Amino acid sequence: MAKLFLSISLLILAISQSLFQGVKSSASFTFINKCDQTIWPGILSNAGIAALQPTGFALQKGETKVLHAPSSWGGRFWGRTHCAEDSDGKFTCATGDCGSGTMECSGAGASPPATLAEFTLDGDGGMDFFDVSLVDGYNLPMLVAPTGGSGHNCTYTGCMVDLNGACPSALKVMNADGEGVACKSACEAFGDQEYCCSGSYGTPDTCKPSSYSQLFKTACPRAYSYAYDDKTSTFTCTGADYQVTFCPPSTTSKKSTEEQATPATPQLNTGMVYEGADQMENHAAPWYTHIQGVIMAVVMVVALL
Ligand SMILES: *[C@@H]1O[C@H](CO)[C@@H](O)[C@H](O)[C@H]1NC(C)=O
Predict the structure, then answer these.
(1) Does 301 lie in the same domain as 265?
(2) How far is the CA of 132 from the centre of ligand 1 (A)?
């Protein structure tokens, strides 16, 4: 009799496991524009997987847009700035342009410099891997914040400070008015293998942070500042949804010129940095993960009878 109970219970456990895993097979992304200007997010899905649509759209100041990713989706997001259509209807942007000539990027990536948010959903161990990268330079402050997920480093990442004003002149990209609109990586600006982690510098042991990458790292400690910056820049979550915020509130407030000149001291008062900060600190496991534990306990008890 106990054997019958045990096998029935195991069956129930197996069914519940597949059911509850099915609850969260993919993630939603909420794009929020807190910039003073319209942003045109671009999306590039990794090769060989179902693409996230649309591949580009306009996000007005203050606007929010939700997209649902296919399961096991991977790819990158970035923000394009100062976009316009010319008289021939060709769409181009001053930063982050993908060269498609249209609002949608249709499989084309950002031309650097651009701040990138990179995701691999449902990767190793069922975890989502994500990061914000300045390896291809910087054009906008971005915050990636998981909601509702679990994991030991399931927390926010990003580059919350305005690096355009503070960018060293050798790396600075300016618009026609002489205003800084982006900041190149040292690799892009100088092309040295040492900065690009290529050639004889193509391994984690040989490619070290440079004074330029350290400038990015000091300003944005959670973001990738050079190719092998993995340890401090890759975050993981299980069962999370994500908010991708352009110009999170700490950066839109007026800064003194002194602060702008010193990127080394980002002003991040923890807890007041952005709306919903308390939500980001919530590492609690989603409710359905507990159900399995309860069922497991019931199985144990029944098996012991
Ligand atoms: C987060 O966890 C992953 C997987 O354990 C690890 O590789 C990564 O270095 C961690 N990231 C941080 C910022 O601690």
Answers:
(1) no
(2) 14
* 16 and 39 assigned to the same domain: no
Q: Which residues contact 20 (CB under 8 A, 6 or more apart)?
A: 288, 289, 291, 292
Cα 127 to middle of ligand 1, angstroms = 11
Distance from C-alpha of 191 to C-alpha of 103, rounded to nearest angstrom:
30
Q: Which atom of ligand 1 is nearest to the CA of 231?
A: 9
Q: What range defines the domain where residue 218 resides?
A: 26-183+210-285
User: How far, CA to CA in Å, does 241 sit from each of 25, 183, 223, 236?
Assistant: 11, 30, 19, 12
pLDDT tens over the chain, length 305 residues: 566 555 555 444 454 554 444 444 589 999 999 999 999 999 999 999 999 999 999 999 999 999 999 999 999 999 999 999 999 999 999 999 999 999 999 999 999 999 999 999 999 999 999 999 999 999 999 999 999 999 999 999 999 999 999 999 999 999 989 999 999 999 999 999 999 999 999 999 999 999 999 999 999 999 999 999 999 999 999 999 999 999 999 743 444 433 333 333 333 333 333 333 333 333 344 444 444 555 555 545 455 56
If asked whether residues 33 and 45 sit together in one domain, one would say yes
Asked whether residue 32 falls in the same domain as residue 4, the answer is no
For residue 165, the CA-to-ligand 1 centroid distance in Å is 31
Position 195 in a domain: no
